[in-house]
Amino acid sequence: MESDLHPTNFPQLSQQLVDAVRFIGERQWCPATGGNFSARIDEQHCLITQSGKFKDQLTLDDLMISTMDNKAVDPALKPSAETGLHTKLYQLNPQIDCVLHTHSVHSTVLSRACGDKIVIQGYEMQKSLRGNTTHLDSIEVLVFDNDQDIDALAKRVEAKWHAGEITQPGFLVKGHGLYAWGNSVSEAKRHVEGFEFLFACLWQEKLLGKA
User: Fold this and answer.
1) Average pLDDT over residues 153-164
2) Which whole number is the average pLDDT over 142-161?
3) Is residue 2 a part of any domain in this protein?
């Protein structure tokens, strides 16, 4: 992993990101080198996983540094094709310090079975998502149409963000998976776990004919 940037917390941040990605990979939430994961270094740079790496086997050498305008600090390394969506989220909210994108079966299939949003209500696990304090509330998770043009997708996310329609720390991309974030690697990981549990429950409800 290249770096001329050495903030005090750089080694700790790098290891936290690798540990979170391996945790996710071991649960088969991003098979076949899928998914991409990042952490903010400062206002101009983020760590992000290199393209084509198996996430359950990720090492520090599989991380790289990107600028917030999606340029690799080391041009010999290839960042994820979806880097632009990570950096857009960092630009939209300076409190976001980590973005995790998974490709789990439940999140991917559920995104295809729903419209432009998923409504969740009645699950205690809703409280794992920042800002939610009771299972009684109804929460909405937006679902965006997939797009191979990441800049176009990022602009649609930006429009919904400014319209105040993204109210949870994550959204789904149809037939693709989950993007979740947090103000630390630990919080983003918690949000991924919470979302993945909730999506699995919702899919089971559909199989039981209750949704």
Assistant:
1) 98
2) 96
3) no
Average pLDDT of the segment spanning 99-117? 94
- Angle of the 10-26 helix axis to the 185-207 helix axis, nearest 10: 20
**Proportion of the chain above pLDDT 90, given as a percent:** 86
| For residue 211, pLDDT beyond 90 | no
Interatomic CA distance for residues 142 and 139, integer angstroms: 10
Distance in angstroms (rounded) separating the CA atoms of residues 62 and 35: 13
Cα 58 from Cα 47, distance rounded (Å): 13
User: Left, alpha or beta for 42 (phi > 0: left; psi -120 to 50: alpha)?
Assistant: beta
| Residue-range definition of the domain harbouring residue 196 | 10-207
For residue 4, being part of any structural domain is answered with no
Q: CATH number of the domain that 81 lies in? A: 3.40.225.10
Cβ within 8 Å of residue 16, ≥6 positions away = 39, 185, 186
d(CA 192, CA 27): 12
**Residue 63 and residue 36 in contact, taking contact as beta carbons nearer than 8 Å:** no
